[in-house]
Task: inverse folding
């Protein structure tokens, strides 16, 4: 019985740690969103910028297509992810038909707040 309780405690601590780390990332985004928006407004249409730090967050690439600015944080299993700033609404609708790379890419956006969305592409 003690071993079982020990396993439950360890599992609980692991889950709490994962939630805490995820919360930190979300809070960091919230804290940086005003600076991200100000930066997004300076990116010109069609521009692709290399690695940079904006609002204390690191990005591999920042690009603007059809008025949507995508901040690529990184890649997970060859699928890029990050945030999108789209003042004209749903970036999936706005970017419909845009070629992102030579590979077929499915874009997924989830509204966060204001003009910001989480973004993930899947190859």
Result:
């Amino acid at each position: 019985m003690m071993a079982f309780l020990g396993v439950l405690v360890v599992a609980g601590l692991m889950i709490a740690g994962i939630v805490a780390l995820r919360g930190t990332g979300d809070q960091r985004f919230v804290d940086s969103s005003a600076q991200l928006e100000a930066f997004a407004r300076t990116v010109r249409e069609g521009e692709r910028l290399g690695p940079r730090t904006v609002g204390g967050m690191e990005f591999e690439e920042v690009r603007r297509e059809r008025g949507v600015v995508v901040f690529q944080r990184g890649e997970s299993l060859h699928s890029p992810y990050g945030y999108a700033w789209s003042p004209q609404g749903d970036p999936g609708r706005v970017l419909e038909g845009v070629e992102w790379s030579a590979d077929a890419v499915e874009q997924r956006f989830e509204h966060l707040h204001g003009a910001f969305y989480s973004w993930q592409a899947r190859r």
Q: What stands out?
A: The chain has one domain: 7-122. Confidence is low (pLDDT under 50) at residues 4-24. The longest strand covers residues 68-76.
